[in-house]
Specification:
This protein is an alpha+beta fold and 158 residues long. The protein is built from four helices and seven strands, in the order βααβββαβαββ. It has a single domain (7-152), classed as Aminopeptidase. Bound molecules: coenzyme A (COA).
């Protein structure tokens, strides 16, 4: 299967409503906050250095991604933490989540990151199979009852 072409775009007054209308499947709501709530969390936590983008296929918003980008303080100080990733239910299982994450990986690599961290809540339909296929591993730590995972990003050529 060829990878879908996806773009990460800034969220502005022009597309905020459409991006906030994205929805995951009913059973997935326990694993991820909505876009609207996530934007609220970002606004309330500037110290976490939130960085977010809409995921687009062509002119269609299809997903949302948010990181804590090299925050100066806190548990993930100086690191890159994938805080939210969601693909609208109509567009899942087409390779879009993976393609978006590949772009995130390139962006954080360009910043000199040697790993990308994340965490997930366990349960039926949790995103671990997606992350495991991508190459994430469990660190053995828990954060607020969530399983902490990391994607090692070895320097190219090593
Ligand atoms: C997890 C999520 C982002 C994956 O996005 P997606 O676009 O559907 O995933 P992709 O199509 O790129 O899948 C990539 C691979 O992972 C697999 N995969 C994706 N979701 C899976 C799942 N729930 N169970 C098993 N495999 C899964 C795909 O089959 C594919 O494998 P393949 O290459 O062997 O075909 C999406 O399901 C989602 O938004 N879930 C709800 C929110 C969530 O849990 N986010 C993560 C926590 S913040």
């Amino acid at each position: 299967m060829t990878s879908p072409v996806v773009h990460l775009r800034e969220i502005t007054d022009d597309n905020r409503e459409a991006v906030c209308a994205l929805r995951v499947r009913h059973h997935q709501k326990q694993f991820v906050a909505s876009v609207k709530r996530s934007l609220g969390h970002a606004a309330a936590a500037p110290k976490a250095h939130p960085w977010f983008r809409a995921v687009y296929c062509g002119d269609e918003p299809v997903g949302f991604v948010m990181l804590s980008w090299n925050p100066p303080t806190g548990r993930y100080r100086g690191r890159y933490f994938l805080w939210r990733l969601l693909i609208d239910k109509r567009y899942q299982r087409r390779g879009i989540g993976r393609a978006a994450l590949e772009q995130i990986v390139e962006l954080v690599r360009a910043e000199g990151a040697t790993e990308l961290l994340s965490s997930y809540e366990t349960g039926e339909g949790d995103p671990w199979p997606f992350y495991e296929k991508f190459g994430f591993e469990r660190t053995g730590e828990l954060d607020d009852d969530e399983i902490v995972i990391r994607l090692p990003l070895p320097a190219r050529g090593s």
